[in-house]
Specification:
about 350 residues; alpha/beta; 9 strands
C-alpha cells in the first residue's frame, strides 16, 4: 500500500504503518492538550492509542496465522486510522475454514480482554471502564471487548460479515452467499452512516468503508465465478511481440511507439528468461541510456502460467505477484501473455455475449 512504512516482521509477516495513521495519534494528542492536559497526560494518551493499535495488530495476526494453517499466506498487515488490514492472498473457499479465519481476530480481542479482566480481578481493580480518568488497563480491557463485539456485526466485509457469508455458503452457492452478505453489510453501513450524521464523523467513515468493501468483495467473487471453468488458452493474448536479452532499450521504445503493447517477455531460444515492463524501461533509459541491452533492465524474477491452467487460478496468481504481465507457456515455450487489462476485456466480452445468449467458451 502506498504511503506506508514498514515497522517490523512478525512470524514472517510485514507490519506496516500508513501515513494517515499518524493523524489519529496527532488528533488524540491535540485533544488531550486542548483540554488542558499536562505533557505527561498527553504522552499517556498517545501511549494508550499505541497500546490499542498493538491489540489491533494481534487481531490481524489472529486472522493471518489461522489462514496459514490452511496454506494461505498473508502479504502484509497495515495499520490505518480505522484499524488494521491483513492482506491475505485469498480467502478459504471451504466455508468452515473461512469461519475459523474470520472468528480468529475477534477471539484474540476477547482473549486479551479476558486476560486483563483476570489481572484486574486479582488486584481488586474495577473493570469495564471507559472514563478517561479510569486506569490504563480497565480502559484497554473494555475497548478490546468492544472491538471483539463490534467486529462480529454482520457488516460484510468485517469479520461478522465473513462469518455470515461462511454460514450462508454451507446452504447456498458461494457467489449468492457473498451477494447476500454484501447486501446485509450495506444495510448496516446505512445504519452506521445515519448514526454518524448525529454527530460522530468516525461512524460515517466506517460506514463508507463497509459499503465500498461489501460491494468490492461481492464484485470480486462474481468475477472469479465468471472465470470458473475457462481455460487459460481462451483468454490469453496471442498477438504479441517478444524481445531478446541482446536487444537495445531503444528497440523496446520503438516497439512501444509502434503499437499498443507496453510490457514484453524476453526470450532466449525457446525459454522465457525475463520480463521488461514499461516502468522498468523508463527507469533504465534514464540510468543506462537507450543503447543499453534489455538484459540490464529486465526482471529475472517473474511468474509464468501454463496454458492448460484455468483462468481463475491464473487470476489469483496475477493478483498475488503484483505484476503487470505474466508469460503463458506450453511445454516451456512462450505461447501467450496474460495482463489485467486483457482479463478485464475478456470478462466484459463474456458478460455481453452472455446477455445476448450467444456465449461460447
Amino acid at each position: 500500500m502506498k504511503w506506508s512504512w514498514k515497522l517490523t516482521d512478525v512470524a514472517g509477516i510485514g507490519i506496516y504503518i500508513h501515513a494517515t495513521f499518524l493523524l489519529i495519534v496527532l488528533w488524540v494528542a491535540f485533544g488531550e492538550w486542548s483540554r488542558g492536559g499536562t505533557p505527561g497526560a498527553v504522552a499517556g494518551a498517545v501511549i494508550f492509542v499505541l497500546a490499542l493499535f498493538a491489540c489491533v495488530v494481534l487481531h490481524e495476526l489472529g486472522h493471518a496465522l489461522t489462514a496459514r494453517r490452511y496454506g494461505i499466506a498473508t502479504r502484509d498487515i497495515t495499520l490505518l486510522p480505522i484499524g488494521g488490514v491483513a492482506r491475505l492472498e485469498r480467502m478459504p473457499e471451504d466455508p468452515m475454514q473461512e469461519l475459523a479465519v474470520a472468528l480468529a481476530g475477534p477471539a484474540v480481542n476477547f482473549a486479551i480482554a479476558g486476560g486483563l479482566f483476570l489481572m484486574l480481578a486479582a488486584s481488586g481493580t474495577p473493570a469495564l471502564q471507559l472514563d478517561p480518568g479510569a486506569g490504563f488497563f480497565p480502559r484497554l480491557m473494555t475497548i478490546n471487548l468492544g472491538l471483539g463485539l463490534f467486529n462480529l456485526l454482520p457488516a460484510f466485509p468485517m469479520d461478522g460479515g465473513r462469518v455470515l457469508r461462511a454460514l450462508l455458503a454451507t446452504r447456498m452457492e458461494y457467489t449468492r452467499a457473498t451477494r447476500t452478505a454484501a447486501v446485509v453489510g450495506q444495510a448496516f453501513a446505512f445504519l452506521l452512516g445515519f448514526a454518524g450524521l448525529m454527530g460522530n464523523p468516525v461512524l460515517l467513515f466506517i460506514a463508507l468503508f463497509v459499503w465500498m468493501g461489501a460491494e468490492g468483495e461481492a464484485s470480486m467473487v462474481e468475477v472469479r465465478s465468471a472465470m470458473g471453468g475457462v481455460p487459460m488458452a481462451r483468454a490469453m493474448i496471442t498477438d504479441f511481440h517478444a524481445l531478446s536479452p541482446d536487444d537495445s532499450l531503444q528497440h523496446a521504445v520503438d516497439m512501444i511507439l509502434a503499437g499498443s503493447q507496453q510490457d514484453f517477455p524476453v526470450v532466449q531460444g525457446d525459454a522465457v528468461v525475463g520480463v521488461l515492463t514499461r516502468a522498468d524501461l523508463l527507469r533504465a533509459l534514464t540510468q543506462l541510456g537507450p543503447e543499453s541491452p534489455v538484459a540490464g533492465a529486465m526482471r529475472r524474477d517473474f511468474q509464468v502460467v501454463e496454458s492448460t491452467e484455468m483462468l481463475e487460478t491464473a487470476f489469483r496468481r496475477l493478483q498475488g505477484c503484483d505484476c503487470r504481465v505474466m508469460p503463458v507457456v506450453s511445454r516451456g515455450k512462450l505461447v501467450g501473455l496474460l495482463t489485467p487489462e486483457n482479463m478485464g476485456e475478456f470478462l466484459m466480452i463474456q458478460a455481453a455475449m452472455g446477455r445476448s445468449g450467444r456465449l461460447r467458451i
